[in-house]
Design a protein that fits this description.
The chain has 13 helices and eleven strands. By secondary structure, the chain is α/β, with parallel strands linked by helices. Helix 1 links the parallel strand 1 and strand 2.
Length: about 300
Amino acid sequence: MASATLLFDVDTGIDDALALLFALGRPDVEIAGIGVVAGNVPVEVGTENTLRVLHLKDRPDVPVARGCDRPLVQPLRNATEVHGDDGLGNTGLPPSGWSPTGEHAVDQLVRLARSRPGEITLVAVGPLTNVAVALLKEPALPRLLKNVVVMGGAFAEPGNVTATAEFNIWVDPEAARRVFEAGFDLTAVPLDATMRAFLTETHLDSLGAGPVPAFVRAVARSYLEVYYRHGRPGAAMHDPLAAAIAVDPTLIQEGAKLAVTVETRGDWTRGMTIGDRRPGERANAPPGRATICFAADVPRFFDQFLRALR
């Protein structure tokens, strides 16, 4: 029996692909489906990348649904300078030859939540557009999902797009604000935690031989170079850490339940995630509630992550 039933919502670039491989490599994890949203790359590129990952693992049983192709309000801004034009480090991988289901990712999310109430953990590791639209279609979604794990935000850590904003939130702040304020049992895995979990050349060398390790080394090469240029010792495992915490919440070493919202208007702070750390109840606190992972057990995470990739 699966220890976790996950529904992914991804914008498949490099770290999304690694997060999916982690979950696919865990025999105790059921993947109920994967929805794709525009973010790191356009939604059609992210959909094909997701299918490529599934093809690598020979998992045609996992349904993939293409979702929203742009944010709720602003134009789409991608991260091809980080993930490459193909979203997978410009590795030139051949097409999967597979196709998405034809169901919209929003409809897939709502259908699965309704059919399996209280069973599914949503792992949202891209912009939150699909989830926000699903809330409009099914306002009971926070009660139907078991919980939601979001890779997104920056609280004490600086942003990675602006001084205050993390990429997934910055791409669609309006969607993120709706999701954080909707009443989900929500855990956020922000840059505060993920910027302590660096994949290194030593990790890659430990993977051994085989198609999955070869794929991981290929897509990680350019990703590492981006981080090296910014003076980092390796590549931050943003999405894999969120996926690992969805499976094993005890990986959270330092966390706090905070009132949270997302700034949608400031010239310098648009996309900023705001957690109210003031003690006691405050009448003017932000309306959302979330458990924020400020630090994770990084050695234990990498032990689980690398074992799954092998």
